[in-house]
Design brief:
Oligomer: single chain
Distance between the termini: 53 Å
Order of helices and strands: HEHEHEEEHEHEEHHHEEHEEH
Strand content: 15-25%
CATH topology of the largest domain: Aspartate Aminotransferase, domain 2
Length: 316
């Protein structure tokens, strides 16, 4: 399985790593948990993007780590605000499609982040979330490829295939491998072998890359249809963030605040939206009150059109 993942990453992401550096996990969530336990240091913080997924923050704090939030914008983590005086054990980031804002971290910020980690003697945990589904712009190097000795790379097949398949992997610098393998052993002994053999054959025969290409075209069409329908109903009333990749986008409405009451009314009519404010740790930041996440991966054109029509009826 590790050999197949190594070859797949080389072809799809330009990542060069030996199979020996790869540890198979039960999804990227377990990889993050292992990294947090491995890197946790007393009197040091974990720098986490804000906003970010509250469940992933919980994974980090459950490992005993103390979180320090860091602001992000439409281009990802704001590296110009990094403080060299912060005592950090690691930085957790989603540079390929920041969750939830959707920003793709540009190369200048990637280099700046890695330089900071090097100078601050801490690691970067790179969750390569949604990297397979990129629709616009040139490819960007993974952080791991830019500095393999400073980055722990997390990947998962759950988004690519199905959430029911809890298979992921992590790539680690050599000095961390032995201790991480020990943690993994005492976590669950090993990840389900039958699933690994099945997925390895799927990768080996080229079926995974064919599947990703097929789904990428499907999601791209859904994304474009959602944008068309929003433009039809809300022309001049919104701005989109994070549409270049992934399975969701952030829609920012110019004159609408998504209060709890408004969100409940929308959901009562059968449309599920996710306010960006729900993902903030520092809730004093009100700049996201007019932003919502809209997913499109699981919907057909008819459902997308119907959902946008309902939003138009409810949003003033």
């Amino acid at each position: 399985m590790r050999e197949e993942i190594s070859r797949y990453l080389s072809r799809s992401r330009g990542i060069s790593c030996t199979p020996e550096r790869i540890i198979i996990t039960s999804g990227a969530t377990q990889g993050l948990s292992l990294a947090a336990h491995l890197l946790n240091q007393e009197n040091k913080n974990v720098l986490v993007e804000d906003p970010t997924h509250p469940g992933l923050r919980k994974v980090i704090t459950t490992a005993g780590c103390r979180i320090k939030t860091h602001p992000t914008d439409e281009r990802g983590i704001k590296t110009e605000l990094l403080n060299p005086a912060d005592p950090l054990s690691f930085i957790y980031t989603t540079p390929s499609h920041q969750y939830p804002l959707g920003g793709i971290l540009p190369i200048q910020r990637r280099l700046s982040l890695l330089s900071f980690a090097e100078a601050n003697n801490c690691y970067v945990v790179e969750d390569d979330y949604d990297s397979e589904f990129r629709y616009e712009g040139p490819p960007v190097n993974a952080l791991y490829e830019l500095n393999p000795e400073r980055v722990i790379y997390l990947g998962s097949f759950s988004k690519i295939l199905t959430p029911a398949i809890r298979l992921g992997f992590m790539i680690l610098p050599d000095p961390l491998l032995k201790d991480c393998k020990t943690l993994k052993t005492y976590s669950d002994v090993h990840t389900d072998a039958l699933s690994q053999y099945t997925l390895a054959e799927f990768i080996r025969g080229g079926s995974l890359e064919k599947h990703i290409w097929k789904m990428k075209k499907y999601y791209h069409k859904n994304r474009n249809h959602l944008i068309r329908e929003l433009t039809r109903q809300f022309a001049g009333e919104f701005h989109i963030l994070g549409q270049a990749a992934g399975l969701h986008m952030v829609v920012q409405f110019h004159n609408t605040v998504f209060s709890k009451e408004l969100v409940q009314e929308i959901e009562h009519h059968g449309v599920r939206i996710y306010p960006v404010e729900n993902y903030l740790l520092e809730h004093s930041d009100t700049s996201h009150s007019n932003q919502i996440l809209m997913g499109y991966s699981h919907l057909n054109f008819e459902a997308i059109t119907a959902g946008v029509d309902i939003l138009r009826e409810i949003i003033p």
